[in-house]
Amino acid sequence: MERIASAQLPTAEATFTMTVFRAEDGKEHMVLSLGDLKAEPPPLVRIHSECLTGDALGSMRCDCGPQLQEAMHRIAAEGRGAILYLRQEGRGIGLGNKIRAYALQDQGVDTVDANHQLGFPDDARDYRLAVALLCEMGVCRLRLLTNNPRKVASLAADGIEVVDRVPLQVGENPHNAGYLATKRKRLGHLLPP
Ligand SMILES: Nc1nc2c(ncn2[C@@H]2O[C@H](COP(=O)(O)OP(=O)(O)OP(=O)(O)O)[C@@H](O)[C@H]2O)c(=O)[nH]1
């Protein structure tokens, strides 16, 4: 993981430091950070997977956009923390394939079966990327903003101590109710029924 550049990024929530890293496959990933990440208590961290449709366009098919906004808001409120923005669009299958999966979901297939019909696993992400970024920043203990127990387990398996899982339940709407229900029932996300 190569550190490329860092600069200040003023936003409505806070002025974050944005740092770009390049992985061995050439993909660029981003960390938005605030305050001293090595101080106690362990910082609030969000590991966010790229979602062009939700993060940039405000799509209501998923909860990604509101989760990103809420993570920025909570980190700003604490005055320290980080968002790792991983370029693993579409749970790792890429934008074109995610839209193929959306087209299948438009015909009634759920998000997991749509991935399978396209020949992908339900979740193709690799959190070793996140571990490499955390190690680069010297963060070995954190409080993780997520509803996804798989994320917590992946980090723990690679030696990152998740001292607390902080739920991030925002952005439910009539368009994504079925999608969220599938995340809960088939992907193990800790979401209210
Ligand atoms: N393949 C696929 N990817 C999707 C779909 N909807 C959203 N995504 C992607 O899912 C990723 C976000 O993952 P989620 O499963 O929503 O949440 P998570 O990161 O596992 O868990 P949280 O930390 O609780 O948010 C982003 O990369 C989105 O682009 C879909 O229907 N199909």
UniProtKB/TrEMBL annotation:
GO terms for biological process: riboflavin biosynthetic process. Keywords: GTP-binding, Hydrolase, Metal-binding, Nucleotide-binding, Riboflavin biosynthesis, Zinc. Binds 1 zinc ion per subunit. It comes from the Bacteria. Belongs to the GTP cyclohydrolase II family. It holds the Pfam family GTP_cyclohydro2. SUPFAM superfamilies: RibA-like. Its EC number is 3.5.4.25. Zn(2+) binds at residues 51, 62, 64. Residues 2-167 form the GTP cyclohydrolase II domain. This is GTP cyclohydrolase-2. Its cofactor is Zn(2+). GO terms for molecular function: 3,4-dihydroxy-2-butanone-4-phosphate synthase activity; GTP binding; GTP cyclohydrolase II activity; zinc ion binding. It catalyses: GTP + 4 H2O = 2,5-diamino-6-hydroxy-4-(5-phosphoribosylamino)-pyrimidine + formate + 2 phosphate + 3 H(+). The lineage of its organism: Bacteria, Pseudomonadati, Pseudomonadota, Gammaproteobacteria, Nevskiales. The gene is ribA. GTP binds at residues 46-50, 67, 89-91, 111, 146, 151. Pathway: Cofactor biosynthesis; riboflavin biosynthesis; 5-amino-6-(D-ribitylamino)uracil from GTP: step 1/4.
